[in-house]
Automatic annotation (TrEMBL):
PROSITE patterns: VOC. GO terms for molecular function: metal ion binding; methylmalonyl-CoA epimerase activity. Belongs to the methylmalonyl-CoA epimerase family. The keyword Iron-sulfur does not apply. Methylmalonyl-CoA epimerase involved in propionyl-CoA metabolism. Pfam families: Glyoxalase_4. GO terms for biological process: L-methylmalonyl-CoA metabolic process. This is Methylmalonyl-CoA epimerase, mitochondrial. Its EC number is 5.1.99.1. It comes from the Eukaryota. PANTHER family: METHYLMALONYL-COA EPIMERASE, METHYLMALONYL-COA EPIMERASE, MITOCHONDRIAL. It catalyses: (R)-methylmalonyl-CoA = (S)-methylmalonyl-CoA.
Amino acid sequence: SGLLSRLQISAPTIRTLSSSKPLLQNIPSCLWKLGRLNHVAIAVPDLEKAQSLYKDVLGAQVSETVALPEHGVYTVFVELGNTKLELLHPLGEKSPIASFLQKNKTGGMHHICIEVDDIKAAMTELKKKKIRILSEEPKIGAHGKPVIFLHPKDCHGVLVELEQA
């Protein structure tokens, strides 16, 4: 009536689960693959304060500030080991981060970035599936790789960035 009998009772359940059909069987195969989470982007009203929080208070490795005029942002990356945080601050009056911060005065999560192995194939297939892409062509992102953004209304309220791995 100890551990052995409990293991014997749960063993058939384990066999049943392992012999069942794969959970992903109904997902159609794609010409492209979704990869790992690259980063979570956070819009911040005060970039120096945010850098200091992650570097001086939390002890993270924090990059230098990089200006990305094509995207209208300053970026700073915080290394977390398994992924990164991207701190975003407005660059110029037409910055999408400026309008985000007007609505969210203290800042907040702006988007998530997921790597893909073929960004062009992803774009083609997502368009066929009626997912809106916010640009006609990929732009070069903060890592020097092509990126696109998917409309948040098509992604359950989350702005999703896809980056070529």
